[in-house]
Amino acid sequence: MRRIRYHSYGGPEALALEEAPVPAPKAGQVLIAAEAIGANFVDTQLRRGMAQAELYPRPLPRSLTGDVVGTVEAVGPDTDPALVGRRVAAACEDAFCDFAVADARWLVPVPDGLDAGTAGVLPMVAPVALSVLRAGRLARGETVLVHCAAGAIGHLVVQLAKLLGAGTVVATASTAPKLEFARAHGADIGVDYTDEDWPEQVRTAAPGGVDVVLDAAGGEILRRSLDVLAPYGRLVAYGAASGELGSVPVTDLFALRSVTGFSLIAARAADAEQARQDLAELTEYAVQGLLRAAVHAWLPLTETSEAHRLLESRAQLGRVLVVP
C-alpha cells in the first residue's frame, strides 16, 4: 500500500510517498480501507519540528495523524468480527495511507447517506468542538467568543454554540471571506483578529464582556483574550495555531476570570462513557443536518504536500480532505 511519512523536519516538501506492507490489526484494532482522510493543522507544526512537538513526542520518521472514513476490512484478535464491512470513521495515528489501523473502541459508525466530509469530523474534530464548549460551562443565553472560527474545528464550534443555546456568538478570523464564512455558519458578529484593536471591537459587540472564550490560537491572542472576559468569565485553551502556546500570569486571574485547557485524549481517559455519549449526540446532529462540515478541498493522496500548503496558508474554509 501507499503511505505518507517524513524523515526530517521541514516544509511540505518533506512529505514522502512510500510503499509499505498493509498493517495487521492488533487486539482491539480494526483495519480500514480509506475512502477519505481529514488533514490536521497540528501536523504541519509537528512536521516543521516546532515547539508543540514536545507535547506529542514521536521519533523520526513520522506519520501523519488524521480522521479516516472508510470500510472495515479486517479486525484484530478479541475484536468484534461483525465490524467487517461496516462504513466507519476513526481518528488514526498513521492516517495518510490506503489502509489505516484504528482503535475499535472509538470507531464511529457512519449512518447511510452521510457524506464523507461530515462523517470525517465525527471521530475527533466535532468532539473537540463540543467538549471545549462544555469545558467552558456554556449556559443558555451567554456570549461566546470563538477564535479561528473559519477553521476545521472553529466552524463547528460556532454551530454547536448556537445549538447549545448561546445568546451571541462572536467569531474571529483573519480575512473578510473567513468572517463571512463564520457568519454563514451561525456567528452573529465577526472580528478580524489581525486588527490591533480587535479586543476593543469585541468589547463594543459585548459591552459587559464575553462569558466564554474558546482559543485555538495561543500566544498573544490568548493573553489579550483575558481582557474581554466578563466577571466570572471562562477561557478554554485547546491549541496553538500561532506557533506559541502562551502563558497567563496568575495575577490576571484575580479579576474573577478562569482559564482551563482541553485535550481530547485526557477527556476520554477521564470519562470514556461521556465521550461515547458525545459521539452519539454529534452523529445525531449530523444526521439531522444540524451540524454541517465544510470541505475546502479534496486532494489525492499523492498531493498531501499540497494539503499541508493549504493548511499553512491559512486560506482554507473548513476542512482539507485527501482521497487515496
From TrEMBL:
| Boundaries of every Enoyl reductase (ER) domain copy | 10-322
Which Pfam families has this protein been placed in?
ADH_N, ADH_zinc_N
Which superkingdom, per the lineage? Bacteria
InterPro entries, A to Z: ADH-like_C, ADH-like_N, ER, GroES-like_sf, NAD(P)-bd_dom_sf, Zn-ADH-like_protein
Instruction: Report the PANTHER family cross-referenced here.
Output: QUINONE OXIDOREDUCTASE-LIKE PROTEIN 2, SHORT-CHAIN DEHYDROGENASE/REDUCTASE
Protein name (Swiss-Prot/TrEMBL): Zinc-binding dehydrogenase
Q: Which organism is it from?
A: Streptomyces mooreae
